[in-house]
Amino acid sequence: QVRLVESGGGLVQPGGSLRLSCASSGNFFSIYSMGWYRQAPGKQRELVATITAGGRTNYADAVKGRFTISRDNAKKTTYLQMSSLKPEDTAVYFCNSQTGSWGQGTQVTVSS
Question: What integer is the mean pLDDT of 37-51?
Answer without folding.
Answer: 97
